[in-house]
Structures are given as C-alpha cells and as structure tokens.
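Both lines are quoted verbatim for reference:

——
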Amino acid sequence: MDCTNYTTERRRGQHLTFEERVIIRTRWNDGWNNNQIAKEIG
C-alpha cells in the first residue's frame, strides 16, 4: 500500500474539537442525556 497514514484502529474522541468537548462536559454537568447533547452538537 502506498498510503502510510491509513489505520483501521478506532480512536475514540479524536474527531471532536476542544469546544465540542467543553460543550459535552457542560451539558453532562447540567443533566442532559446523550441524545440531547448529540442533537445540539450535530
């Protein structure tokens, strides 16, 4: 294979920006559930 950066490993949380992580933490502390947080973030 020519592509040296390809990996099949899944790294959890790598696709989130810092701002999204802050929003998630804040919403969790406010008592929101996963579905509500996901809808807000998109």
